[in-house]
Amino acid sequence: MSNKLDTSPYKGVRDFYPEDMWLEKYMFETMRKAVESYGYVEYTASILEPAELYKAKSGQEIVNEQTYTFTDRGNREVTLRPEMTPTVARMVAGRRRDLGFPLRWYSIPNLFRYENPQRGRLREHYQLNVDVFGITGLSAEVEIISVANAIMQGFGAHDADYSILINSRKLLKELFELFNISEEKSYTLSKLIDKKEKVSAEDFLSGVEELIGDNAKELVALLSSNQKLLERIGEDHETVKTILSVITSLDQLGIKNVIFTPTLMRGFDYYTDIVFEVFDTHPENNRSLFGGGRYDNLLELFGNDSVPAVGFGMGDVTLADFLRTHNLLPAYRSEVGAVLATIGAVDENEVAILAQSFRSKGLNVAVTIGAKKPADVIKNTLKQGVKYIIFVGEDELSKKVYTFKDLTTEETSSLSFDDIVRSIQS
Asked: Is 86 helix (H, G, I), strand (E, B) or coil?
């Protein structure tokens, strides 16, 4: 064939070779350990959803520009899910009367968005989603942010490595009402404010001026000073007290890297009150890592009464960037405990029985039969990231003493079955 197929994956998606899959499993296991310690249980769903699920509440930018949407053979408009929150809302609404609230659910789904691939953003990623349903009080926000913090700590991160930014969408609504900004302009302005840190001060002011005219400088000044904003809204205002209460409660739990950030909005339209983001403080990766907030009205889309809900989504791409930047990634080690390699002509059944004996002790053992040279076995085993080789020939099988090589130290010794098991498990 003259035209060979390209070995590269589709733009913006990934192949997971064993070392990549090992990292994913490590991240997922660390996430699961932290989340389940708070009493959350796992669920999942198909990657395919009706397109109208996202048109209703996700936000026009995501629906119109970032979804993979197509018409199936039954003439139904279908979307590869770009996020998980509408899905879990659909699931809870579907069995609401059968479920015992409060619900504490989590999942680690594969998500798809058609956007420009760049550092921290691909067209597909895995994302931990953590949600609690049925709690109206601020204990839900405190718990969810505590879970997020526990995950970061579980990866070995310190308080100085990241900040937890917090705000309320209600606060910006109050501010917009003070300036008599229409609902239509408020929506556009909120999207602009959410991107404030990504554009220059001049461009931000210009954008605000286009929307509200002469009041732009005063509004921008308030958004640039927490103290001025609090004075204008009033520190006794219910929304302000709500934000400060969450910060105080987190402080009492030992979570002290929380920062009130009035420009924080989050991109999804379904958030109704408190929103938060975890932000990397390292100068080489100074960016938002993940976030979430309260969304009490999403279940109403399915004809249900509102159900209070708070949650967040944590993507694997930005998390891996964070771990690399802060040198928190453990060294890759194959999940194969040892390679059992034959020397010369041997009874293959005896070798298989020996391998099974090792496996019965909880070891993961791969068998290589008929290798031409021990050097070839060593070379290939090193490429696979496996630490140990057990060489077995007729003499070893008869004496039940095997040649054991540690590829890390390059030491070779003759050991019994039990001694090999102890060496690998130690």
From this structure: helix
